[in-house]
Design goal:
By secondary structure, the protein is mainly beta. The chain has one helix and ten strands; from the N terminus they run βαβββββββββ. It has a single domain, classed as Jelly Rolls (Sandwich). The strands form three sheets. The chain has a four-stranded antiparallel β-sheet, with no helix packed on it. Strands 4-9-6-7 form a four-stranded antiparallel β-sheet, with no helix packed on it. A hairpin with a 2-residue loop joins β6 and β7.
């Protein structure tokens, strides 16, 4: 896996990841469906999975915007890492869907509906569709972006 790679493992997908080197990653877990177990299923104790839809891998060097072919069940239209240069900004916009930012390095100044806050590494901002948002990056930063 290269940096910025998105892996979608829908309900019923058998998967395993093993990192052999230090690797910066972010993961998003969606709401559980059907039996609403507390987490992953294990074949040994829970039996075989019931597949739903195929998963996909979007290589990092191709992940620069909305996911082109996300299938019928993937809830995300975008899931990627964004790197900001010092002084860079994301223009003010009214959000068409829910949007989430995870600050990973540096700091971001986020304004949502007139309220401004600084996002530092580890901070997460979750905004609902319809909110008006802008971002500024005074020093340079890296963040994970998720759009529904």
């Amino acid at each position: 896996m290269k940096p910025n790679t998105t892996v979608y493992t829908p309900m019923g997908s058998v998967h395993r990841f093993h990192m052999f080197t230090d690797f910066d990653n972010s993961s998003v877990v969606t709401r559980l469906e059907r039996q609403k177990r507390p987490g992953h299923l294990y074949r040994e104790t829970d039996g075989p999975p019931v597949p739903t839809v195929p998963g996909f891998v979007l290589p990092g060097d191709e992940n620069h915007g909305p996911i082109a072919d996300r299938g019928p069940r993937c809830p995300f239209t975008e899931l990627r890492t964004v790197e900001f240069a010092a002084g860079e900004a994301v223009q003010r916009a009214q959000l068409a869907g829910n949007e989430h930012w995870l600050a990973k390095e540096g700091g971001l100044l986020l304004e949502v509906d007139g309220f401004e806050v600084e996002l530092l590494p580890g901070d997460v901002a979750m905004m609902r569709a319809g909110a008006t948002r802008s971002l500024r990056c005074p020093r340079g930063a890296k963040a994970a972006l998720v759009r529904e």
